[in-house]
Amino acid sequence: MTPGQLRAKIVAERAAWIRRMVASLRALPGESFETFQSDSRNIAAAESYLRRALEALHLPDSKSESGRILVEEGCYTCRVY
Description:
70% helix, 0% strand
């Protein structure tokens, strides 16, 4: 297997992982914020799915840590509309 093929395989695996995490996010109760917030496990699950999807975007040789920073710092200050 060549490096190009290996990279393509990794990208495909990560894209599939991101799709699964997004599907899991969509499966959470979302009729209203009150419904979502009524069970604290929904909040924890949403954070976990979002973090895992963003982690899949991080490449080992990448200098960017924006996904990690967004989850660790940004989500706690996000405004809900």
